[in-house]
Amino acid sequence: MYYTYMIRCEDNSIYTGMTSDIKRRFEEHLNKDKKCAKYTLTHSAKKLECVWESENRVLASRLEYRIKKLSKIEKEKLIKNNKLLDKLLGEKIEVSQYKILKISSV
């Protein structure tokens, strides 16, 4: 399994990434580990907002790319209501290939 995720940073910006191990990856961002993203080195990670599960790396990467193309307003809407994935990206990707995970289960 692979995961596409959105992280809220201390400055209220949103970072989007993908990984095969969401717990490890979020810890890397939080702790500013040497493997964390350059973005979260300068924009401290605060909270995991959304996580989508997909079968393979290609699907996870595709969703990551599409989310990164959204405006900040669209990303905020997606965080508030993850069911908007179809409305925001349904014309670009097959959203049925992604399963939203509850943050507490991550």
Spatial gap, N to C terminus: 13 Å
Q: Sketch the major β-sheet.
A: 4 strands, antiparallel
Strand content: 25-35%
Indicate the CATH topology.
GIY-YIG endonuclease
Mean pLDDT level: 92
CATH architecture title: 3-Layer(aba) Sandwich
Number of structural domains: 1
Rg over CA atoms, rounded to whole Å, is 13 Å
Helix amount? 25-40%
Number of helices: 5
Shape summary: globular
Q: CATH class, please? A: Alpha Beta
User: Are there runs of 5+ residues with pLDDT below 50, and where?
Assistant: none
In short:
The protein is of the alpha+beta class and 106 residues long. The chain has a single domain (2-105), classed as GIY-YIG endonuclease (3-Layer(aba) Sandwich). The protein has helices spanning 22-31, 38-42, 57-68, 72-80, 85-89; strands at residues 2-9, 14-19, 45-54, 99-101.
Explain how this protein is built.
There is one protein chain. The chain is α+β, with helices and mostly antiparallel strands. The chain is 39% helix and 25% strand. It has 5 helices and 4 strands, in the order ββααβαααβ. The protein is globular, with a radius of gyration of 13 Å.
Task: Describe the SSE topology.
Elements: E1 2-9, E2 14-19, H1 22-31, H2 38-42, E3 45-54, H3 57-68, H4 72-80, H5 85-89, E4 99-101
Antiparallel strand pairs: 1-2, 1-3, 3-4
